[in-house]
Design goal:
By secondary structure, this protein is mainly α. The protein has a single domain, classed as Farnesyl Diphosphate Synthase. It is built from 16 helices and 2 strands. Strands 1-2 form a two-stranded antiparallel ribbon. A hairpin with a 2-residue loop joins strand 1 and strand 2. The protein is globular, with a radius of gyration of 20 Å.
Amino acid sequence: MFFMPGFSWGNDALDKELREVRDFLSGEAQRSQDYVGFEISRALESKGKLLRPALVLLSGRLGNKSVADIVELAAAMEMIHLATLIHDDVIDGAPSRRGEPALHVRIGGARAILAGDWLLARALSIAGRHHDAELFLFLNERIEELCRAEIHQDASSGRLVVSRREYLRRVDGKTAALLRLSCRAGAGVAGADSQILDTLDNWALIVGRAFQMDDDALDYRDRREHRSLSADLRAGLSTLPLIIAWESGDGKIRKLTGNGMPASTRKRRQIRKRVIELGAVELARREAAVLYQKAREKSLLLPSTGSRDFDTILDRLMNRSF
């Protein structure tokens, strides 16, 4: 195995364990010896946050027993996450991921789907190797939820603005589902009691919503790759800033989006510009901040060390610009 530096959460014990997660994932990359392995390596080289493995590891501290292979379980959650990103990029036709051409652009859609399928199958194999049926059932329920949310999103393609209720249903089924799974995986295998499991589940649901709302807003601010158009808008995805702009009743934004997904890049740039002018990006970030504060209140219900650990995560997420 080799050491590969990455994003630091500022928690020495957690960052040390995450280096072990990276080492495990690098071993998986070498094991596959094909474009799947290359994609794992590329994800590691991007110095990502490894948020989901971090939640597995922190949640694992809240039980009454140690788990020798929790690093492997944490790595499995990241593999599931990577699989969903690959599949999302194919479905959305996204040209890039982490500032580089998306996998499907480099090797073709069919191969990219196979890569995502392999990662998902391998993650399930790792997660199911040592852990109980209850956790495996919860894991499969969340994967089913992920698929269902993607199907609903695809079924409503062509609608650039959806209701808040539909938006939250998508977020809960995708972003929040993986965070819930990560928390339940760590705490469940460590023997945490039902009160802690419920608290973590509520915490993860709230943070999942806040994280996605923040991501939506940051997408409008992204100036990398000389883009003047947000990646989500280019893919035709309905996000919170656009929903907020629509809710304002502004005639211009309603005219621009009233007939579904605009075909021209010029019109999409006009939408982006108007969303920013209406202050919808900042309003989306404020909504995320309110939810992050609610999550902080939930973390107070955890044991004192757990509360501090999860507040470390919230501190970094609330102040992110990445």
